[in-house]
Amino acid sequence: MAHLTQIELQNLRELISAHQNVSSKLRTYAQQSTDSHVKGIFEQGANAADNTAQKLISFLR
User: Fold this and answer.
1) What spatial distance separates the first Cα and last Cα of the chain, rounded to whole Å?
2) C-alpha to C-alpha distance for 53 and 41, rounded to whole angstroms
3) Whole-angstrom Cα distance, residue 16 to residue 60?
4) What secondary structure does DSSP assign to 22-59, as a single string?
5) DSSP structure class, residue 60
6) Are the C-beta atoms of 59 and 12 separated by less than 8 Å?
7) What pLDDT digit, counting tens, does each position of 20-58 carry?
8) What gap in Å lies between CA 27 and CA 16, rounded to an integer?
């Protein structure tokens, strides 16, 4: 792991949390959607947010 400053570490944690929060919300919207096209858009967004969160988590390893 690269040596991160405390500020960088805190910023990284906040970004990860924000992406996880967005993913959760988009999945909820997808579950509530009755339109299959809209549902797919929400699911794609949730997957993208998950992927980004995982990439950011990799910086902590």
Assistant:
1) 5
2) 18
3) 11
4) HHHHHHHHHHH---HHHHHHHHHHHHHHHHHHHHHHHT
5) T
6) yes
7) 999 999 999 999 999 999 999 999 999 999 999 999 999
8) 17
Cα separation, 15 vs 32, in Å, equals: 26
Global pTM value: 0.88
* Residue whose C-alpha is closest to residue 24's, from 1, 46, 56: 46
**What phi-psi label fits residue 4: left (phi over 0), alpha (psi between -120 and 50 degrees) or beta?**
beta
Q: For tokens 């949390």, name the residue.
A: 17
Retrieve residue 53's tokens.
């969160």
Are residues 53 and 20 in contact, defined by beta-carbon separation less than 8 angstroms? yes
In single-letter form, the type of residue at position 45 comes to G
